[in-house]
């Protein structure tokens, strides 16, 4: 059996439905900050320096996320290895 449901809702309604944060204000502020930096340093404009504060915080968050996933993976692997040993011992 195959069931298909089509839902016609806006992105804002989807965010609210799933409890996701509304980041529109943050994105607007980020773009405004970038425009100000570009306007103030148009002569020596360097995109890498412009985005450096945002990249650093993003990389730190990504590193933390990877550590959490690695820890969860290792815990699952240890748990499965313990279950296998117990099954062989009981069997």
From TrEMBL:
Family matches, as InterPro entries: DUF6489
Listed name of the protein: DUF6489 family protein
Protein's organism: Thioalkalicoccus limnaeus
């Amino acid at each position: 059996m195959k069931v298909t449901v089509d839902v016609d809702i806006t992105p804002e309604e989807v965010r609210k439905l799933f409890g996701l944060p509304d980041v529109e204000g943050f994105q607007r502020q980020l773009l405004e900050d970038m425009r100000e930096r570009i306007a103030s340093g148009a002569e020596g404009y360097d995109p890498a320096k412009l985005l450096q504060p945002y990249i650093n915080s993003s990389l730190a968050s990504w590193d933390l996320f990877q550590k959490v996933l690695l820890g969860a993976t290792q815990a699952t692997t240890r748990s499965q290895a313990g279950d296998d040993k117990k099954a062989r011992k009981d069997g």
